[in-house]
Amino acid sequence: MIHPRHTLAEVARVIVGLVFVLSGLLKAVDPVGTALKIGQYLTPILDVHGPKGEVFTLVISFILCGSEFLLGAFLLMGVYRKLCARLSLLFMLVMTAVSLYSVLAHPVSDCGCFGDAIRLTPLETFLKNLILLPLSFLVLRDARALRHLYSRRERWVPAILAVVGIIYFMVNNYRHLPYRDFRPYSIGTDLRRAIVQEEEELQKALIGSTKYLYKKGGESKAFDATNLPDSSWTFVEAQQDTRLVDYLPKYDFSPLDSTGQSVAQELLEGKGITLLLLAPSWRTASQSVIDEVAELYQESLALGYHFYGVSASTSEETAEWRYQTGASYPMLQLDATPIRTIIRSQPGLVVLRDGQIIDKRAYADFPSVENVSHYLKGLQDTEAPLPSPSATRTYLLWAWAGLLLLGFLRFWARKLHLTIHLHLKKRLHLPQ
Predict the structure, then answer these.
(1) Max Cα separation, the chain?
(2) Residue 250: exposed, middle, or buried by beta-carbon count in 10 A (0-12, 13-18, 19+)?
(3) Assuming Cys at both sites, which of 80, 166, 186, 261 could form a disulfide with 181, CB separation 3.0 to 4.6 Å?
(4) CA–CA separation, 292 vs 173, rounded Å?
């Protein structure tokens, strides 16, 4: 007979394991974005700015994403049960403390525990952790009684697939762009229409949530914009929803030229192809593709395309980049935060066609000098499908998921066979 305590531990194991796998995968999709979120957490206590700080947070990002996925994967498979149960409880204790710190200190607006795919407020994250923490304790309490899907001789196969699969997945998402882009500036976005729509929605929200306080005699009353009082009332003040006061737009795209004038409308309203070479800082941008960038610029001019460099660098840093790379393309100024949101590479290439994003590339995927002309001419084809990342980086993870499913099916097949066998023995009065 199965003890209810063991059943509860098994349910807790599956819930914790699935959450860990999902959380680790969604963060591993964008390890650079996870590193940026870690930097926001650490900024109040550590100086993580500059190249060394970026490397430090990126290393933590890889460790966090990989370890969280592997803890969940091993829990689901039932391998290394005692060790994984201890580490899971320790992990949840740390994450619960971090989420409590987030609730009290508000270093971030969303926790980033599921990347950009699922956004949770610090309070929602803390409540989630309050549920997972006792479940992790249940897993540890009955760790030895947890069922395993693979024997000691078999478990190394799915274990290696999980380890190699998540590392390969993270490295490719770092070297290239994220496998799935959950940010506002994804390929296919009509940037011009998206910005206009967001502004319209914000104006509607402002009008609908703003209350106008009027006074008449000794009475004070709040009215909305569609129901204002007559002239016998005296206006006092406008009261706005505090959530809209702190509202940050998703599309913060307002590049400036050398004179400080905004060129956003020119870039988005203009017809034809526009190429933007983006980097938060030219000082930290890779110079390994300067020949490819130079060829992209020259061929763009020949085809009548627009080409700009966009960064948050100072004039001194921009001058240094020009000197070191021979860059002669016009430069635009944009805050580092939207640049990092638009693209995770330093530098990265974004291609606009009539205000729509039709391609994004990390510098590792820039067309070679020999293929630049073919690549640029292909951008004119409006019937061509928009590019998407290669699925090869997910194959090892799919193989692990297949083995996990196979293990579950084999486990339940054995359990069903044993149940039927015992039932027949009982019905036929055979010795047990």
Answers:
(1) 97
(2) middle
(3) 186
(4) 22
Q: Whole-angstrom Cα distance, residue 149 to residue 415? A: 12
141-165 pLDDT, tens per residue?
Answer: 888 888 888 888 888 888 999 999 9
| CA gap 168, 397 in Å, rounded | 9
Q: In whole angstroms, give the CA distance from residue 218 to residue 284.
A: 63
In whole angstroms, give the CA distance from residue 359 to residue 329: 20
Asked if 301 and 328 count as a contact pair (C-beta separation under 8 A), the reply is no
The runs of H, that is alpha helices, within 235-371 are 242-245, 264-269, 290-303, 315-325, 336-342
Percentage above 90 pLDDT, the chain: 51
Phi, psi for residue 380 in degrees, rounded to 5: -80, -20
- CA 239-245-250 angle, 5° bins: 145
Dihedral of CA 418/421/426/431: which sign?
Answer: negative
Q: Please list the helix, strand and coil fractions of the chain in percent, rounded to the nearest 5, in that order.
A: 55, 10, 30
Element (H, E) at 210: none
- Cα–Cα distance measured from residue 81 to residue 79, given in angstroms and rounded to the nearest whole number: 5
**What is 24-91 written as a DSSP string?**
HHHHHT-HHHHHHHHHHHHTTTS---HHHHHHHHHHHHHHHHHHHHHHHHHHHHT-SHHHHHHHHHHH
pLDDT of residue 414: 73
